[in-house]
């Protein structure tokens, strides 16, 4: 006989005149469950009669016992104690079969009630799933629109184009193949809690080292990564802030995604914001042991990082949350 978890079967109440019975609803199987004792209340008969009818129903082959009986945990008060017992429950088919044999009027009343309850729950569930699906579809379209916009950018060269294709491929795998739509296509992934941000001094030293290398190759000027006011300090402070005693960005993925996004979009430097953002992003992953995945491969290669940076730069500020979740899912997916 199938075993069922009571947490998966919500309790509803059936009332008839001065009688009230707790009924387990199983909307997934489109049925309800009652014990023999509960059937005696609903049909106003002795338990012996219910037992006899059930025995005959199964012996005569009217119903299949395996398909209509489930063992559920029930908490009962026995004396002064609450005792949990495994008790047989019978589904709507068995309930109605018993009802027809003892009192058809009461069976019809209960069947009408049970059918209405099942219809309401199934309709509500379908409506909620449809609403969630439509919301996911809108967010999915918004994310793909970002990709289309980036693909039209004059800054997209052959290398970045390959990276953009890689991003779209990961996007499709993460959001369309690995997650059920009713869990949220762009839901935040399982993440690694924590994440140590560099201090302002450490971040400044990292950028100064990058600047020196680029200037030596003639790929940057004195304006590269030059602070505009206290933009970098404020940005790092915001990433490390707490809300009601809890980190505002509690995971490595969240901090990394927001670090990349904020440096690109907030323009804390006079020049080289995209390159600085990509470098700080990689440096942060390295500091937290996330630059390589479990297979020893880069979480994101140079071409993919260039394309991702361009994608963020081309995105509309209104799509910030979509962009951030995209980065987080890529980081989580690359480690699986």
Account of the protein in words:
- The structure is a single chain.
- This protein is α+β, with helices and mostly antiparallel strands.
- The chain has three domains: 24-124, no CATH class; 130-183; 200-332, Four Helix Bundle (Hemerythrin (Met), subunit A).
- It is built from twelve helices and seven strands.
- It has helices at residues 36-43, 47-59, 65-68, 92-102, 104-151, 158-177, 200-216, 231-239, 252-266, 273-287, 302-314, 320-334; strands at 11-16, 19-26, 31-33, 69-78, 81-90, 242-243, 246-247.
- It has a three-stranded antiparallel sheet with strand order 1-2-3.
- A hairpin with a 2-residue loop joins strand 6 and strand 7 (246-247).
- The longest helix is centred in the middle third of the chain and has 48 residues, at 104-151.
- Mean pLDDT is 75; it is low at 1-8 and 169-186.
- Pfam families: Fic, Virulence_RhuM.
- Residues 181-329 form the Fido domain.
- InterPro entries: Fido, Fido-like_dom_sf, Type_II_TA_Toxin, Virulence_RhuM-like.
- It comes from Vreelandella subglaciescola.
- This is Fic/DOC family protein.
Concise structural overview:
The chain has 336 residues and is α+β, with helices and mostly antiparallel strands. The chain has helices at residues 36-43, 47-59, 65-68, 92-102, 104-151, 158-177, 200-216, 231-239, 252-266, 273-287, 302-314, 320-334, and strands at 11-16, 19-26, 31-33, 69-78, 81-90, 242-243, 246-247. β6 and β7 form a beta hairpin.
From the structure above, extract its key features:
336 residues; Four Helix Bundle (Hemerythrin (Met), subunit A); Fic/DOC family protein; Type_II_TA_Toxin; disordered N terminus; Fido; three-stranded antiparallel β-sheet; 56% helix; Fido-like_dom_sf; two-stranded antiparallel sheet
């Amino acid at each position: 006989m199938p075993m069922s978890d009571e947490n998966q079967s919500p309790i509803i109440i059936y009332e008839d005149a001065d009688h009230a019975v707790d009924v387990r609803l199983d909307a997934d199987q489109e049925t309800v469950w009652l014990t023999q004792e509960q059937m005696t209340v609903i049909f106003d008969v002795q338990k012996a009669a219910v037992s006899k009818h059930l025995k005959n129903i199964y012996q005569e082959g009217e119903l299949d016992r395996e398909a209509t009986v489930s063992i559920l945990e029930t908490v009962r008060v026995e004396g002064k104690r609450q005792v949990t017992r495994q008790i047989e429950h019978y589904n709507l088919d068995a309930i109605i079969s018993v009802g027809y044999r003892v009192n058809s009027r009461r069976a019809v009343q209960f069947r009408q009630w049970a059918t209405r309850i099942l219809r309401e729950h199934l309709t509500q569930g379908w409506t909620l799933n449809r609403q969630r699906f439509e919301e996911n579809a809108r967010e999915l379209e918004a994310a793909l629109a970002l990709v289309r916009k980036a693909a039209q950018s004059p800054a997209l060269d052959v290398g970045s184009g390959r990276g953009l294709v890689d991003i779209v491929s990961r996007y499709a795998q993460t959001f369309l193949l690995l997650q059920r739509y009713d869990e949220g296509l762009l839901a935040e992934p399982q993440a690694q809690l924590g994440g140590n941000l560099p201090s302002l001094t450490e971040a400044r030293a990292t950028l100064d080292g990058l600047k020196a290398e680029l200037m030596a190759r003639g790929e940057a000027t004195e304006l590269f990564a030059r602070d505009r006011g206290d933009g970098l300090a404020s940005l790092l402070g915001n990433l490390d802030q707490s809300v009601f005693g809890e980190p505002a960005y509690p995971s490595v993925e969240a901090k990394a995604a927001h670090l990349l996004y904020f440096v690109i979009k907030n323009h804390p430097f006079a020049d080289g914001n995209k390159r600085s953002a990509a470098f700080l992003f990689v440096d942060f992953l390295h500091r937290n042991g996330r630059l390589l995945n479990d297979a020893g491969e880069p979480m994101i290669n140079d071409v993919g990082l260039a394309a991702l940076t361009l994608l963020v730069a081309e995105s509309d500020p209104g799509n910030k949350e979509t962009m951030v979740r995209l980065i987080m899912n890529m980081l989580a997916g690359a480690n699986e």
